[in-house]
Amino acid sequence: MTIFINILAVAFLLTGLVSFLGGAVGIMRMPDFYSRLHPAGKLDTLGIFTMVAGLVIYNFHHLSFGMVLLSIKMFLIVFFVFLASPTATHSIVDAGMRAGLRPWTKKKEKE
Amino acid sequence: MQQKENEKKQAGFFSFIITFVFMFVTWIILSGYFEPLLLGLGVVSSLAIAWFFHDLLFAGATVQDVKVFLRFCQYAPWLIVEIIKANFHLLFLVFHPRMHQLIDPHIIQFQTGLKSDIAITTLANAITLTPGTVTITANAEGGFRVHAIDRQSAQGLPGVMRDRVAHVYGENR
Amino acid sequence: MIYFFSCIAVGLCLIMILPLYRCLMGPTVLDRLVGVNAIGSKTVVLLLLIGYLYERVDMFVDIALAYAFLNFVAVLAASRYFHKRKGLYEESFME
Description:
heterotrimer, A: 86% helix
């Protein structure tokens, strides 16, 4: 049972790490500011979700009432991030549109 | 006139109760202590906040909104599965060596026909959370402008997601 | 397992370098904001992992929650502040 919990937690944590790495690489490689928001806003959300899920699974080692409360508190962070991350992304996009940044398109590159 | 006033008062009382329960549950989760003094302090502060702000957080909530909440609980796991499925597509794009030929950013516009503010907000959040698409603007008539990163992720819009959100808020017409 | 947690924490710190480059070198102010947001969301998980390393998770969860709130408010305020600064960008198509 212990080894099973450990394997599950490690798998979740590594998935989250890969997703965070994807977000960071996406921020580096994408051509313009609007497409940079795609990896920044969403792969980070998925990364937080999977990593916190892995840590909550690790919590099952010492099962007690305090630990259950702690896990609920951790999922409160995830819930808040799921609400806040689209709002922050939308706010940045809105700022870009109002400031008049032109979106990068493929056709413009060919000309 | 008298009846309308009465209904208004009732709705205010219901949203007061909902706000109080929400605040108190949050207090218990965040504090984690169960001594009578601390619980009493929690009750007092939740009552004060519910008294002052009951028209802010759940304004005009009625008993029927409990059904909406239950349907929302069914909708949330579907959304999470959808996010995880779509994220792998974005991961594939990001790590692809010839990414600049694969992506094709463009802006699409469509009309959804959703009425209430909360339905439009939920749909905008869901579109932003699903990778490949970011909501740029959403106006009160249900018109959306969406920035999509390639043609494939833009195809599914509005489609299934709009129907799900409309079902949650009972706007299937 | 604690050893594995510290490895993950070091990996997160290494990943943070990439958005930091975007923060320092970003062509526009909003690019820097995107980088700051990405670093903040990694820091939330890093705080939880530090809590496991010090065996005081109950304390560090509160710090992580507060950091998530603070990150959100910072991004919101900064983007609201910068959306009127038209002169900051080199190209502008809306006049």
